[in-house]
Design a protein that fits this description.
Layout: E1 6-12, H1 18-26, E2 33-40, E3 57-61, H2 66-76, E4 81-84, E5 90-91, H3 95-106, E6 110-118, E7 124-126, H4 136-142, E8 155-157, H5 158-164, H6 175-185, E9 190-201, H7 207-210, H8 212-238
Parallel strand pairs: 1-2, 1-4, 2-3, 6-9
Antiparallel strand pairs: 4-8, 5-9, 6-7, 6-8
Helix pairs in contact: 6-8
């Protein structure tokens, strides 16, 4: 097995869990990793980063939102593959090892995994919260009624971003949702490794908890734009199956 470099991008803004996210990135069993933490103008919890700075690439920028932090990380990334880890979530130790092997075995440019939901104390609330999508056709069909991909489970070749563009900062809370729709509509296959390799933290300070209405409004715009394209892709490629 070859071990191409994986760049883990961690956007950080005033998050009390950032040290735990960093530890989970540093504890990956995969042997070729760079960790890029993009500090999006934080004013709190920056002291939690200090013990890890010599092991990571640290970038500080003025506050502009998660999409802009991810994009800055993409610009700095030297890896063939890109992983995104929110500063309040955790990677399991073998996340990258298993996912790179999965992608290499299938010749994939992008994949996602299942995930657990944990609380503020790292207690697992729900095991394997994601649904099963046994093939790429089912992923496309999933986007007709739901959001199959948890962004922090994704592993994707950097060349895909270079070809189809970076995250859209005008989608402040749903930049990842727009990205997966965009890539699928262009025919980029994103397949599921149905194993829980990420832990998604549910807590009162998360963006998902605090900005539900804004998220729903953005999602409606995205779905109106992209779902007809997904329907057409299914018709063109899978209707005869």
């Amino acid at each position: 097995m070859l071990y191409p470099k994986v760049s883990i991008i961690i956007p950080f803004y005033n998050c009390a869990y950032v040290d735990q996210a960093l530890r989970s990135a540093l504890q990956q069993t995969y042997p070729n990793v760079e960790i890029i933490l993009v500090d999006d103008g934080s004013t709190k919890h920056t002291e939690k980063i200090a013990p890890y700075k010599r092991h990571i690439k640290y970038i500080r920028k003025s506050n502009g939102g998660t999409a802009t932090a991810l994009n800055r990380g993409l610009e700095a990334a030297s890896g063939e593959y890109i992983a995104w880890l929110s500063s309040d979530d955790l990677f399991k130790p073998d996340k990258l090892s298993k996912q790179v092997a999965f992608m290499q075995a299938r010749g994939l440019d992008a994949s996602f995994t299942n995930y657990d939901i944990i609380d503020s104390n790292n207690v697992v609330q729900i095991l394997s919260n994601g649904a099963d999508y046994p093939n790429i056709k089912s992923v496309y069909e999933g986007y007709l009624y739901s959001n199959p991909i948890n962004g922090c489970t994704i592993l994707i070749k950097k060349s895909i971003f270079m070809q189809y563009g970076f995250f859209n900062p005008t989608m402040v809370y749903t930049h990842d949702y727009e990205m997966w729709f965009r890539l699928l509509s262009k025919g980029v296959h994103i397949e599921l490794l149905n194993e829980s390799l990420t832990q998604f933290r549910s807590h009162s300070e998360s963006g998902t908890s605090k900005h539900q209405q804004q998220m729903l409004a953005e999602m409606q715009v995205i779905e109106t734009m992209y779902r007809p394209l997904i329907v057409q892709y299914i018709v063109d490629h899978y209707l005869h199956l």
